[in-house]
Amino acid sequence: MRRFTISTLRDLGMGRKTVENQINEECDFLIKKFKSYGGKPFENTTIMNAAAANIIVSILLGHRFDYDDPVFLRLMGFINENVRLVGTPMVMLYNTFTSLIRWLPGGHRKINQNAVEAQKFITETFTKHKEQLDINDQRTLIDTFLVKQQEDKSEFSSYFHNDNLVILVSNLFAAGMETTSSTLQWGLLLMMKYPEIQKNVQNEIEKVIGSSEPQSEHRKLMPYTDAVIHEVQRFANIVPTNLPHATTQDVTFKGYFIPKGTYVIPLLTSVLRDEAHFEKPNEFHPGHFLDSKGNFVRNEAFLPFSAGKRSCAGENLAKMELFLFFTRLLQNFTFQALPGAELDLTPALGFTTPPMTYRYTKRLTNDHDQRYDLAVIVDLVEEKMFNCLSATDPKTTFPYDMQHNLE
Ligand code: HEM
Would the pLDDT of 367 be above 90? Predict the structure, then answer.
């Protein structure tokens, strides 16, 4: 299934010009949305999730959604809530003592409900695709999967069945949305925290790109911005526990014997914060990726996408998204905290670790260099965020509903 996914994503333009154009179009919508608040405070998690989700959604379904589309908000809400719930103590207890905890109320039950709801939506969607399927015009990953399903059943039926399609689509949706969006949110927060670094990025954008549309090939001409994006990923460390793996054979590692079939959690924190590889592992320091002449330098411990045969299948897509969204936002806006606001870099709880939720407000508009200044109000603390999640009624509201977070 991994091989099918990677080759289909590649055929559909992942990491190439086709997707680059899609990302740039999405940037237009994102910038319009940011500008539309006209000075009123807004919470950006939902918007960033929607922008990142739209890229993977157009690869999967062949179209994008409006940021306010209720179906889209609902779907993102299920995924977002589940990613957060996986990090809660009750779900950790459930994973350890399943047969006991399953009888108790708590987040583990909500996770299942959310997964069922999301899968219902996906099943309805691909049923529609099935009705309109044209073998000679495969535009989406779902089309390609359905064509495979119709081919030689004896060879493919064990993989290309409906249940696998539902799981594949929901996994790609979750993997493609949450990770990219969390990283970008960290990027904006860190730019507010370190305005001088933000200014350096903007100067480089001005020098290399000016007011034209950022393209992937600009990246190699922009060592400072490249270093900042790498450092955002390293510092943000958004998948600290990685995905769980298991040994396929007996292994002896650093003197420890690990039998075949042992559950292994290869912590990414151990490399991303390794003091043997990073001078200031717990600080945000773009110099980790720059030499004394300002050239970009790689670091072998930079592994936010993990390593090996099961490393991130969307790495190329993610890198393109991060570069284009980040440069485009900083080309158009300056992000800054309201006077007196303290920017807390403590991550939120969850399987992935985005920053805690902030609301942005546009403070100054149209300053002389045509950028918009955005100010941040430090507001929702983590605890409050979880109150808001548990108060969610799945039938009528969405966990990260923008209205919910607006005052
Ligand atoms: C900043 C963005 C992203 C980060 C940091 C990230 C990170 C990761 C990590 C750490 C893993 C686990 C690898 C392992 O098990 O060793 C993973 C797996 C995966 N990612 Fe990403 N990812 C990102 C974006 C994306 C995007 C945009 C997609 C969309 C195509 C994607 C698709 C996947 C898939 C399908 C897997 C499972 C691979 C497998 O099990 O074989 N990721 N990602």
Answer: no
Q: Which of 21-25, 279-283, 379-383 has the lowest mean pLDDT?
A: 379-383
Q: Which atom of ligand 1 is nearest to the CA of 321?
A: 27
The alpha carbon of 364 and the centre of ligand 1 are apart by a number of angstroms equal to 37
Compute the Cα dihedral for 322, 325, 330, 331 and give only its sign. positive
Q: Which of 9, 56, 142, 179 to mutate to test ligand 1, by most ligand atoms within 8 A of the CB atom? A: 179
The pLDDT tens digits for 299-312 are 999 999 999 989 99
How high is the mean pLDDT of the chain? 82
Q: Model's pTM, two decimal places?
A: 0.86
Beta-carbon count within 10 A of 387 CB: 11
- Shortest CA distance to 191 belongs to which of 202, 178, 181? 202
Q: How far is the CA of 314 from the centre of ligand 1 (A)?
A: 6
SS3 per residue for the chain: CHHHHHHHHHHCCCCCHHHHHHHHHHHHHHHHHHHHCCCCCEECHHHHHHHHHHHHHHHHHCCCCCCCCHHHHHHHHHHHHHHHHCCCHHHHHHHHCHHHHCCCCCHHHHHHHHHHHHHHHHHHHHHHHHHHCCCCCCCCHHHHHHHHHHCCHHHHCCCCCHHHHHHHHHHHHHHHHHHHHHHHHHHHHHHHHCHHHHHHHHHHHHHHCCCCCCCHHHHHHCHHHHHHHHHHHHHHCCCCCCCCEECCCCEEECCEEECCCCEECCCCHHHHCCCCCCCCCCCCCHHHHECCCCCECCCCCCCCCCCCCCCCCCHHHHHHHHHHHHHHHHHHEEEEECCCCCCCCCECCCCCCCECCEEEEEEECCCCCCCEEEEEEECCCHHHHHHHHHCCCCCCCCCCCHHHHCC
- Largest Cα–Cα distance of the chain, in whole Å? 66
